[in-house]
Amino acid sequence: MIASSARVFATSLKLGLTSFGGPIAHLGYFERTYVRELGWLTAEEYAGIVALCQLLPGPTSSQVGFLIGHRRAGWLGALAAWGGFTLPSALLMYAFAVLTPQMQGPLTRAVLHGLMLTAVVIVAQAVWSMARHLCPDRRRAAIGLLAAVMLLLHNSDAIQFTAMLTGALGGWLLCRNARLPAVALPIAVNSRIAWLALAVFCGLLLGLPAVQAVAPQAPIALCNIFYRAGALVFGGGHVVLPLLREALVPGGWVSDDTFLAGYGLAQAMPGPLFTFAAYLGAVSAPAHAAALYATVALLAIFLPGLLLATAGLSLWGRLAHLNGSQAILAGVNASVVGILGAALYNPVWINGVRNGVDASVALAGFVLLEGWRVPPIAIVLLCVLASTVLAMAP
Q: Which of 159, 161, 258, 387 is a good FRET partner for 232, with 20 to 30 A between their CA atoms?
């Protein structure tokens, strides 16, 4: 088992070093590696795992890798798969957070502004793509639009959660024809373990705010922020942007510019976008505590998704067939599009686009990314180069 876990770690580490392009691209890398090259599971088994993870909150590609690692080498293999895939980008994001304050000057500011423009392009493309898939009809489009309006009028954690609940209600009332994909899972988990994972998930979601109120030390507060974000993210890593921004920026943990610069750099990283948490933990930390805060943030944002993936192995087959569950999920997904659309305007566009030239750079990046399928890392380089040239021009 240890030898198998070591091989799982080595394989996932290679994927963590080379998997650029976001969660959808990651799933393609996984299919090629785990199904076609290694034969660790069949195409049908892989599709079942992917279908489950796409229906749960959390980082889809990390959840898929975690469950494949479990199938190959048990729970040790699951942790090895998650660690190998996560470690490279987490270390790079942490290094960026630590080194950036030491590199002040016009060139650094230009690079950071270019990363903010990258965030505009990436979030715009995510909204466009998700809207086509998750709001394909007028009813779901209306749910998404309502969520966006709610967030634009007043953005807060409470309003975001309310928008998702409203989406669930709207889906239940309006989206009765929605259907979830069939799930055929190749992994069996004892129902006791599944219920324990679900209990831990709920216990932390409810208990961390209570602990923070009794003992409001910063690490506990940070853990609560990132755990809640990881627990409420439907639709992929980009949706974590508005949740984290509203929790961290108004609270004085980080500035908008620092937040968006890190988010832009995260697009150039291989591996899961959720490693953005390591950067945010480090830049919000007091002196000499960056490593601790980065670790707390990183573990807290991934944990709820991994707990739900564990519970989902046993429980989803029953829950998916409950009356109205498909309609509710369709409504939640539509509201997620609206939440991300609101975030595209505020803070991403407002803070990243200063003038018409910035808007032109962002538009060019969007066309290249969406229309020409240029890799995200090339968009990062384009935006940073354009920002730097403009800043250095007389």
A: 258
Tokens of 165: 């609940």
The token pair at 136 is: 């394909």
Q: CA-CA distance, 394 to 385, in Å (whole number)?
A: 16
Can you spell out the DSSP letters for 197-220?
A: HHHHHHHHHHHHHHHHHHS--HHH
Q: What angle is formed at CA 149 by the lines to CA 144 and CA 155, rounded to 5 degrees? A: 110
170 vs 116 pLDDT, higher one = 170
- Identify the CA nearest to 112 among candidates 121, 124, 103, 125: 103
Whether residue 59 is preceded by a cis peptide bond, meaning omega within 30 degrees of 0, is: no
| C-alpha–C-alpha distance, residues 247 and 309, integer Å | 25
Output the DSSP codes for 176-192: TT--PPP---S----HH
**CA 75 → CA 3, 52, 80, 204, 274, distances in Å?**
13, 18, 9, 21, 21
Task: Name the DSSP letter for residue 35.
Answer: I
Q: Which two tokens stand for residue 256?
A: 């908008």
Position with higher pLDDT, 124 vs 140: 140
pLDDT one-digit tens code per residue, 66-91? 999 998 999 999 999 999 999 999 99
